[in-house]
Design brief:
- Keywords: Amino-acid transport, Signal, Transport.
- InterPro entries: BCAA_transport, Leu-bd, Leu_Ile_Val-bd, Peripla_BP_I, TAT_signal.
- It comes from Afipia massiliensis.
- Belongs to the leucine-binding protein family.
- With about 425 residues, the chain is of the alpha/beta class.
- The protein folds into two domains: about 200 residues, Rossmann fold, CATH 3.40.50.2300; about 170 residues, Response regulator (Rossmann fold, 3-Layer(aba) Sandwich), CATH 3.40.50.
- It contains 14 helices and 16 strands.
- The strands form three sheets. Strands 8-7-9-10-11-15-16 form a seven-stranded mixed beta sheet, sandwiched between helices. A five-stranded parallel beta sheet has the order 3-2-4-5-6, with helices on both faces. A four-stranded mixed beta sheet has the order 1-12-13-14, with helices on one face.
- The longest helix has 20 residues.
Length: about 425
């Protein structure tokens, strides 16, 4: 049975974020000033280097939600305080700072805003310490799909690779049929998420269009400084279409370097990470017609509360939201609702019991809700759509959505094939 939260009307939502209007993302300290009776929530994440946007946008997304509840009086008078730490993108450091946040900083809840490589390390710390944890950035399917990874107090409030793969494969197959795109190549980062995401996308593209043939697969290192070698190899191979799971600053670098070689003139491009507005605006010459999965848009889902979230976020971060922004905002609201139900008690098992199966009202759900599925602790009913780039606001248009009933049907078949179901 689903657990439904109370509504969040536009007036209530905006009212809860007014106090944040003048707070820049770089303005609030890594550890906010101690307040009496605060509930400390720790966040291990990446705050330096090429993909620092992951951490800064995650932090701002949580801050919007925390500002809202704190301005309304907190939980039984207790304010929520965010304490973040930079893992520098290293899994060993992610595990270390997570333990430090709990054992030394007094954090009673963890929002894991790590990339997938770090999230598996954080996951094992949570298995050991038993506090409530929301994984808000990792998209690697195995984190929650594999029963061996199950942790009672850990949940994923982030899109999952298999969901994107089903929708993306269907979308790509339709275009492949229309344009005769049979020769495909891939170029994705060489780590768990990159390989899992790419494998799943190609698998479903082939299911929906069997004529697709993969002629080459390239695996540059995560956070590689230069992609000339990969781009040159693609030009030599001459695929008709390329799929990439590159993300963050790595993807910006890849596209800008590809522009120099005119890669996209004769090659269709499909991206699992391009749809974040700050990335799109960072690209000096964004090509028209690149295909990307939905990451975030103020126009979609088309709810007034989504635009209210956008406005509140921009006032804090001084830039547009990312996929990580809304995922962390929603994750923070799962925590807030669970704390309401436990009357502010922070016991990991008690909070997990409330989050499990919760149906959260949120403007970031396709029907105004996102559900935390009980059986595997991952969200469903979030936007899974694909669109095409244009070199101006809103950057991605013509979103094609896939019904969740079809996604879940294929996901169940995938789980059985993997031995997960």
């Amino acid at each position: 049975m689903s657990k439904t939260t109370g509504g969040i009307g536009r007036r209530t939502f905006i009212g809860g974020t007014i106090a944040s209007a003048g707070v820049a993302i770089t303005g609030f300290p890594h550890v906010a000033r101690a307040q009496a009776k605060t509930i400390k929530v720790g966040m291990p994440t990446i705050l330096s280097g090429r993909v620092a946007l992951l951490g800064t946008s995650s932090r701002a997304g949580v801050q919007v939600a925390f500002n809202q509840i704190n301005e309304a009086g907190g939980i039984n008078g207790r304010k929520l305080e965010l304490v973040d730490r930079d893992s520098k993108g290293r899994p060993d450091e992610a595990a270390k700072v997570t333990r430090d946040l709990i054992n030394n900083d007094g954090c009673e809840i963890i929002i894991d805003a790590e990339a997938s490589s770090g999230s598996f390390a954080v996951h094992e710390v949570i298995r050991d310490l038993g506090v409530l944890c929301l994984h808000t950035c990792s998209e690697s399917s195995t984190l929650t799909a594999d029963p061996k990874q199950f942790v009672k107090t850990a949940f994923r409030c982030a899109r999952q690779g298999i969901h994107d793969a089903v929708a993306g494969g269907s979308y790509a197959a339709k275009i492949a049929k229309e344009k005769g795109l049979k020769r495909w190549a891939t170029c994705s980062p060489d780590y768990a998420y990159g390989r899992d995401n790419t494998g799943e996308f190609i698998e479903y593209a082939k299911i929906f269009e069997p004529s697709i043939e993969v002629v080459d697969q390239l695996w540059p290192k995560l956070f590689a400084p230069d992609y000339t070698e990969s781009i040159t190899k693609l030009l030599q191979t001459k695929p008709q279409a390329v799929y990439s799971a590159l993300w963050g600053g790595d993807l910006v670098a890849f596209i800008e370097q590809s522009n120099l070689y005119r890669l996209f003139q004769n090659t269709a491009f499909f991206s699992g990470g391009l749809g974040d507005p700050p990335l799109l605006t960072a690209i000096k010459q964004l090509p028209t017609g690149l295909n990307t999965v939905y990451r975030y848009s103020k126009e979609y889902p088309p709810y007034p509360e989504n635009k209210a979230f956008y406005e509140a976020y921009v006032k804090i971060a001084k830039q547009e939201p990312t996929n990580w922004s809304w995922q962390n905002f929603v994750g923070a609201n799962f925590i807030i609702e669970a704390l309401r139900r436990t009357n502010g008690k922070t016991d990991g098992a008690a909070l997990a019991g409330e989050v499990e199966g919760m149906q959260l009202k949120t403007p970031l759900g396709v029907d105004g809700t996102i559900t935390m599925r009980a059986k595997d602790h991952t969200i469903i009913n979030y936007p899974v759509a694909w669109g095409k780039t244009i070199p101006k606001d809103p950057w991605v248009i013509d979103y094609v959505n896939m019904e969740w009933s079809k996604i879940l049907e294929h996901e169940q078949q995938w789980k059985k094939a993997k031995g997960y179901a």
